[in-house]
Each structure stands twice: as C-alpha cells, then as structure tokens.
Amino acid sequence: MSAVAIPASPHLDFRNLMWLLAAMAFVVAPHLTRMPYWVGVFFGVVVAWRAWISWAAVHFPPRLVTVALTVAATFGTYFTYGRLFGREAAVTLLVVMSALKLLEMRTQREVALAIYLGFFLVMTNFLFSQSIPLGLYMLACVWIFIATMVGFNRIGRPASLAERLRPAGALLVQALPLMVAFFILFPRTQAPLWALPQDARGSATGLSETMSPGNISNLIKSDAIAFRVQFDGDRPPYSTLYWRGPVLVDFDGVTWSMPQVVPMLSRLDYMRQGNLTSYTVTLEPHGKVWLFGLDAPASLPPNAYVLTDLELRDRRPVAERKRYEMSSYLDYRYGEHIPVYVRQSALRFEADRNPRAIALGRQWASETSDPRAILAKALTLYNREFTYTLEPPLLDARSPYDEFLFETKKGFCEHYAGSFALLMRAAGIPARVVTGYQGGEVNPYTNELIVRQADAHAWTEIWIAGEGWLRVDPTAAVSPLRVEGGVNAALGPIGVLPSLIAADRFGVLSSIRYAWQMLNGQWNEWVLGYNMDRQRQFFGNLGFRDIDWRTLGFWLMIATFVVGGAVSIGLLVRDRPRRIEPSLAAWNRFCAKLAAAGVARAPHEGPLDFLARVRSIRPQLAQAAQDITLRYVDARYGPGASRQAMKELERRVREFRAA
Amino acid sequence: MFAELRQSIADWIFRATVPETPPVTLVQRRIFILPTRQGYVFALTLVVLLVASINYQLSLGFILTFLLASMAGVAMLHTWRNLAHLKLRPGRCDAVFAGETAHFGVTIETPALTRFAIAVRRQDEEPVYADVVAGETAAIGLPAHTRRRGVARCGRLEVFTRYPIGLFHAWSYVDFHLAVIVYPRPDPNAGTPPAQSRSASEEGIPIAGDEEFNMLRSYRAGDAPKLIAWKALAREQPLLTKEFSAMASSELWLDWEDARAADIEARLSVLAHWVLQAEQFGQSYGLRLPGTVIAPARGESHRTRCLEALALFQEPSP
After folding, report:
1. Cα–Cα distances in Å, from A644 out to A628, A632, A640?
2. Contact (Cβ atoms closer than 8 angstroms) between residue A441 and residue A449
3. Which of residues 162-191 of B touch A (CB under 8 A)?
4. Residue B88: its H or E element
5. What pLDDT score was predicted for residue B13?
6. Staple partner for A179: which of A219, A501, A640, B66, CB 3.0–4.6 Å?
C-alpha cells in the first residue's frame, strides 16, 4: 500500500529545496568571483533565509520586504556599474533577482521557473568563459538541476541521492547523441542577430587605445593566450618578434593615446625591404579592430589594411577567433619623408608636466645635435641606474615620469617606453610609443608560437632624418633578457608571476602543459570555433560543397529521426516486458505437440487434469507427459525454477514425441 | 482552453464505455502524451537560450541548448515508459454509509522497472499517487465523498505520470465501472426496533427487553465481540456468548411499515439503524420492504444483504 495524496505546502519539501538552492549557488559561484562583494553577501543571505523559512516552517517575508529588497538590489547594481545594461551589470542584476525569486518561490510551478532561470544563469557564465573546465563544471551544474527536477517530481517518499542523480544522468547521457547531431548540423550564421552590447563579449584582456604607467603590467599577470602563430619556414630569432599593435602618439603628460585620425597606407613598399617571412596568426577575440603582425607588413589578410604608422587593422572589431595569413619584411626601412604634422605631433608634450624630464631632454639637446648621441645618453642612463620589475612603486599622478626617472627608478616596459619617448621629444627628436607583444613561447608538439597577454610590451620609435622611423626598445637597455627570453627570463627564475609560467618554464610540468594546450587548441578550433566557415569546411571535407541552411535543415531533420529513433528503440526495447514466461512457452509447445497428435487440451483444463486425461487416453505417453507436466507445474507455480531446471524442461519438451 | 481541447479529443478517442476486463495492461496505443504547461515554458526557455547562443556566438551556449532540448525529447520517452506496460486491476470498493468517504480501489503492478509517481484520478478530482515497485502490488484508493445512499460510481479513471522531470504528461484512461454501494445513513434517533414485532408476540414468548441477560451459549462465528463473555473466558472457560431474552428465540422483523418517518430516505435511515442495532445484539432479524423480503438470519453477510437492500431500494442495481 503506497498511495498518497499530494502534499501542497508552500514551504516545499526541505530536501528538494536544498537541492535547488545548492544548484543555484553552484551555478552562480563563478559569477560571484567577478562581482563586487555585496552581490555574494546578498545572494548568500537571501538563499540562507529561504532555506530557514522551509526548515523552521516560518512565514515568508511580507510583500513589502521583497519589493524593498528588489529595489535595493537594483539600486545597488546601478551604483556599482553606473548602469543596468551591459554584460556585468545585467548578469549582476540577474543573479540578485534569481536570489529573490528563490526567496518568494512557493509552488511547484515557481520551482520549475527557478530551475529554468538556473539554465539561463548557466548560459550567462559562457559570456565570460568557455574553457573546458568551466564547461565541465557547468555540465555538473545542469546535472544537479535535472536531479533537482527529478526530486520535485517524486511524490511521497523523498528520493535518495542515487534516485535523483541516476535518472538525471541517464537523461543527459541519452541526450548526448542528439545533442552532437544538432551541434554539427544546426545552421550557423555569420553575423549576430543584433548588434552586440559594447562589452557583451570578454574584451577585458588585451591592449587598449591608451597607455599610462600601470596598465600593461596588469596584462602581464594574465597567461591568457593573445594569439598563436605558425611560421611557414623557420621561426625568426626571438629578438625580432615585435608584434605591432596600437601606435600611441598623443601625450598629455601621463597617458599616451592613439591619434584620432591616421591615414591609410596606400602601397606596401618600403625604402628597404628584405628577409620576407610568412606566417599564419590565430587571433583570440579582443573586441578591437587591430590585428597583430610583425614589422613591417608585406602582404595582408583580406579585409585588413595598414595605416601610415604601420598599424594593421581589420574592418570590423575582432569579436570571434580569427585566423589570417600574412607576411612581413623583418628587415625594412620606412618613413624617410614624413609630413610636417606627423613630425609635429611626434614632438608635442605638456611643458608644465614632468618638468625635470623635460629639462633633462633639453639639456642633452644643448650638448649635442646628433640624435644618435642623444639616444646613446638615454640608453646609458637606463642601463646604469634602472631596475626592471613588475611591481613598480606608485607614481605621482601629475608628473609620473619625473618621479620614475629621478626617484623610484623601478619600472616596467610602459615606464621605460613612456619616459624614453618623452625624453626624446624634449630633446627635439620625434618619438612615439608602440604597444603590442614581444616574443612568445614555442609549443614543441605543434611548433606553434604562443603569444600570451603576459607577452604584452611597449617600445618606442624615434624618427631620424634620412633614416626614417627606428625601433628603440629602452626596456632592452635595462633588461636585455626581456627581449631575448621573455618576461620570465627577465624576472629571474623565481619570478613574481602567480601563474604556472613563472615556476616551470622548462621543467617537468611543461609537457603536461603543452598536452593541455593541444587539447585546448582542438577545443578552440572544433568546439568554440565551430562557426559558419568551420561548418562549411567540415561538410566540404565530407564532400558536400556549398552547403546552405536548407540542406542543413533537411539533414538535421533526418538526423533527428535517425538518432532520436535509435535512442528510443534502444530505450524501449530494453524494458519491454517479456510476453510469455519461458516455462509457459515450453508448456504451450508441449500441448501443441499433443494437440497435433489428437489430444488437445481444453481451455479450462489445468495441467494436472490434462495429465490425467493424457494418461488414460495415451498410456504409452504417460511417463514422458508426467515428467514434463510436473516439471512445468514446479517451474511455474513453485518457488521459481533455476536456470538449470528451466533448461531441462525445455530439453524434454523438445525431445517429446507424441506420435 | 487547452485542457478542454485535450479533454474533447480524448473523449472522442475513448468513446467506448463498456467495462474493461481486468487486468488492463497499458499498451502503447492506450497511452497519450503531451507537454505540460511547464513543458511549454521550458520550450520557451530553450528558444531564449538558442537566440542568445546565436547572437553571442556561444558554442557552449549551443551545446547547452541542444543538450537540454535533446534531454526533453528523452524525457518524453521516459515519461511514456513510466506508464507503459503497467497492469491495472480493480481493487477494493467497500460499501460505506452515506456521508462517509468511499474509496474506489485500483491496484497497479509493474512488470519490471520501478515506476515512480504514478497518479490515478477521477475526473475533476485530486489525483492519488503511488510508487509501483516490481513484484509488489500498489493499491490505490480514490476517495469520494458520498451524500446519498444508492450506488456511487467511479467513472472513468485517468492514470497519468509526469515523472521524471515534469515536462510531459503521459496518460491513459481505464474504466472498470467501479462502484461503491452507499448504505442509507443510520438514523441515531430511531431508537430500538419496535418490540411488538409480529412474529415474536404471536409465538407468545415473553419479551423482557433488550438488555436482559438470559443465558450463555457456546460461541458461534459472527457473534458480536461485545456479546462474548469475557469474564468467563478469563476463568479459562471456553468462548461463550451472552444471550439476552429479547433475542433468545424470537425473530425480529424490521418492517417498512413500522418505520415511521417523513419520507422514503428517512424511513430507510431508520431501518438501517435498526439493522445495525439488531446485528449488534445478535438478534436474528428479517427485513420487509415493499417488494423485497429478506428472511430472518444474522451475521455479517446477512447484515450486508439487508443494508444493500436498503441502499438499492428503488435504485437501479449496480
């Protein structure tokens, strides 16, 4: 007897509720790490409150309180981000609102809504990261959510852990084949349905339009990959690997920034050009228009162009992983003749800021008029007195370069590049700051060069009449290893980096790391990078050229039927009840043999009655018939026949001859 | 609106009202399945997730969306098979007195898999749930409040389930024509049966009142527990039953004509009370109704026969 009527308490079953709250907490946890503290506290308190309401069976908060909390959470979000839209703000709002939804949830229907909200929160996590670990973590979250659904759909005795996780796991596992078919076949589109909100996709890491002391050293702490490069021939020497990014000319005393307008370069020919190198770059999305290449570009990817300051740009912001082929002249000379306004803008500085630096530059100019001599003075200064560090002291907000040059003397590439360009301008030499990446790391398995955010760098170019723009990297004067061997070499074996990079550049861990990178590469290429082009390429390889969405839709339907049908048949055939018990089947065969010999069993006749009749009509069969009948009665109505006994019965029926 | 539509479709499909021969196995063609309201909301959620995945070009978003969509498809199969091949039989449908709650019994068995959250409900009533474990029989009693005596009919039963995740509602209809006999509500103010019962006085045996203890006789099956001589039993004597003078030898006739009351129902209530009284005191009694005479006897089955006669008086038989 196990019948129960449905319980309908607004407090919900406590165990089920705890599952739901835990699932929500798991899915929100990655968000909380990147949100202000108050969001985590708010979420935790509200969820704990809901748990307490159910546990102690106390009253729900009055409507006024939930409304007040909603308003407070909205204002909190607004004050934190200054707006309610945009990725961070919207997700914060979603997190706090889902906590409030949990608080007021009372019915099964609201539980379902909360769970669907949970699925939506899973999706928002992917806006921030689509890495393998996060993907697996979110899969676990989905599993817990479905297990929660299973728990809520049980009535009466609460489900055990296995009774929740097993059915939920079975649902997910059985859903996998169809999911894969959908993933491959669902037609992908080129452009988003509507314009992306400014910061919807992660654009947090990467170079920006400006540089002031401190912002590149923040990048350096990230070992996120910026781009990967496959060279067609041999890899050029490390010290030539300057990946050019934004060129910063405008300077206000603290911040270097990109000029508003830079003309396009109409023809890619240089005064001197040699050492042509071809390579393929796979660029991670960074939300900006620039592409990265070695100086100076010789041929361009489609849709790209070059500015007169040799900056390489795409026509659209790089919102997806982008792969392009290009080539460069590593040996080049460019810009002997520059327009006056370019020269002037490369000499401008705010006279009332950094006065000591300006005075030093002017002093050098008064001592000699040879730019190369001035350059040598500056590099000697850096080389003699300065230290390279990732943790530079804080600098004065108004004249930071003065304080850096004359007091702290500890800094990072942006300090050197910025102060050096300023000194040059003060000395009358046109100078500009170039940001980008320097160097990279070779993956021995794929022979790819991996350039990370940690390889971000800033250097300078000075203009000398008759020679054009010359690259000068003042950081190299301080720490030549930075340019020869990368950041970690520059920082020494112990290093200050928090990541794996620091500890074990050539050690045991690296092989694991490279294997992991290879897996990541495949993941990036085939899972995350599975876009319209990739889909076409995939079907092209299979022999379907120029596949369009109609064809894909057709195949999607076929696949749904085939894969879905296979799963259903597998599932339903497995637990179809056996129509006839084996002993009964054997008995029926026995009766059929007798019926063929003229002794038909009447429908009302039990086995023993039938046996008695067989005995009297066909005494010669009595022995065999009795043997079979008794075995059958034993198997069917006894405590259950062993496999052995069953076999024996079947054998005797098979050997039975009625004629 | 949707529920109505579903109902009318189902009514059209299940026109047959002949009672089904038990056991009824829920085979494939008997089972219907449609999304629940939660299922439709889930579908809407999937659309939102898909649009977000397309718009933000989130590959993992696509994976999430397709995984959930495929899972919903698989869940449909699971819901369906949670109902498939269940074997249903009519269960106990014990008679009750008017005003009590009747229970229409159904038993459910599963061939192999354990089935969780199987629900059975009568039209427009709250469902009753049970978990059906292989090798065991789940007995479900569907409560129904009874107001008047007669026959309470169960009507068509809906067997349904939404397990495992509530996105789909799989259901089947079964009609065993279950019925519960509802006895008239005994009228507690009816007093004792009139002592002048014709047969008794004609035979000249003195009627000394109900409660006058007369003699002990040996116990017979069916004697009311309160008539057992417990004290004698305590003295280690055999099981004895006390007899009272009023019931000693006479046959009591409970007569329609003697039950003075306002209307038919009130009369039946009086008679029902008398039947219970007479049975309680171990009296042998007969029942006379217009068109029906039940010869005097006593015991459980006699009592049931009398009460059924009262319940079905001028009613179509069950």
Report:
1. 14, 13, 11
2. yes
3. 162-166
4. strand B87-90
5. 63
6. B66
